[in-house]
Amino acid sequence: MKLFSDLITSTKSKINSNNSPIINQSRGVEIKSLREIEIMRKSSKIVATVLSEIRDLVSPGMTTLDLDCYAEKRIREHGATPSFKGYHGFPGSICSSINDEVVHGIPNKKKVIKEGDLLKVDTGAFYNGYHGDSCITICVGNTSDKAIELSKVAQEALFLGIKQIRPKNKLLDIAGAIEDHVKANGFSVVEDYTGHGVGRNLHEEPSVFNFRTKDLPNVTLREGMTIAVEPIVNLGSKYCKTLRDGWTVITKDGSLSAQWEHTVLVTKNGCEILTDRGDALDF
């Protein structure tokens, strides 16, 4: 997700000393070629596979670092590089955010996953020059009814947003579908972070917002665009704050937060979920 206008407008291409993926100069909204789309199908499939495995692997008593090590190992076994590791200094291959942690939770050997936790796992894979990006929310063991409902509404909002993706529709069509569903269920949409374009860079234009706004470009969708749609939904208020580590974002009121994300291709007649894990909801 991005609060990242400063990142994608960077004029310098660079690579970290730890061989993390190159950050290329932004070229605005990019339309992918058939060759590029085929590569992104592969990078996104790696992400989908690893997240499915993590979903099945998670159990109380594991640490978030356990999950991070597993994800990095599996991404590399598929011939890819973790998109997140080293990206602007982020130390992990996944973002692992628990309960009131909204996004960008840093994997840690001291952070033990507990029964009843609401765990968000976000990861990306960089394969042959292109990224895939996706996030899931996992209800660990016996989770509260409110946590289950929050995750369900966030996932439903994602697919309602994706249902709006087709040529000539606009980003506000996605945003409106997401915002209306979240608010109808009594929850709030986080506005500090948005989805984004994805491809040669992990974060590209456009900003794919999850709420109605006039402050960001209402881009018209075109065949060949690849975007990451990622509603972040809070049980309480929409307001967040960043911890002293400079990465971990939490809800200001201490309420739970859920997030779901897919990388999506705009096709001639609709869209294709590139990070599909077989969990698409039917509306």
Structure description:
- With 283 residues, the chain is an alpha+beta fold.
- It has a single domain (24-273), classed as Creatine Amidinohydrolase (Alpha-Beta Complex).
- It is 26% helix and 23% strand.
- The chain is built from 5 helices and 15 strands.
- It has helices spanning 5-8, 34-57, 64-77, 145-162, 171-184; strands at 81-82, 94-98, 101-103, 118-127, 130-139, 188-189, 195-197, 204-208, 226-229, 232-234, 240-242, 249-251, 257-259, 262-266, 271-273.
- The strands form 4 sheets. Strands 8-7-9-14-15 form a 5-stranded antiparallel beta sheet. Strands 1, 2, 4 and 5 form a 4-stranded antiparallel beta sheet that branches.
- Strand 7 and strand 8 form a beta hairpin.
- Helix 2 (34-57) runs antiparallel to helix 3 and helix 4 packs antiparallel against helix 5 (171-184).
- It is globular and about 45 Å long.
- Residues 4-18 have low confidence and may be disordered.
Secondary-structure map:
Layout: H1 5-8, H2 34-57, H3 64-77, E1 81-82, E2 94-98, E3 101-103, E4 118-127, E5 130-139, H4 145-162, H5 171-184, E6 188-189, E7 195-197, E8 204-208, E9 226-229, E10 232-234, E11 240-242, E12 249-251, E13 257-259, E14 262-266, E15 271-273
Antiparallel strand pairs: 1-4, 2-4, 3-12, 4-5, 6-10, 7-8, 7-9, 9-14, 10-13, 11-12, 14-15
Helix coverage percent of residues? 25-40%
Terminal CA distance reads: 25 Å
Rg: 17 Å
> Percent of residues in beta strands?
15-25%
CATH topology: Creatine Amidinohydrolase
Known CATH architecture: Alpha-Beta Complex
Question: Tally of extended strands?
Answer: 15
Q: How would you name the CATH homologous superfamily?
A: Creatinase/methionine aminopeptidase superfamily
Structural shape: globular
CATH class term? Alpha Beta
Structural class: alpha+beta
Average pLDDT confidence is: 92
Number of domains: 1
Poorly predicted segments: 4-18
Strand order of the largest sheet: 8-7-9-14-15
Largest sheet composition = 5 strands, antiparallel
Question: Could you state the order of secondary-structure elements as H and E?
Answer: HHHEEEEEHHEEEEEEEEEE
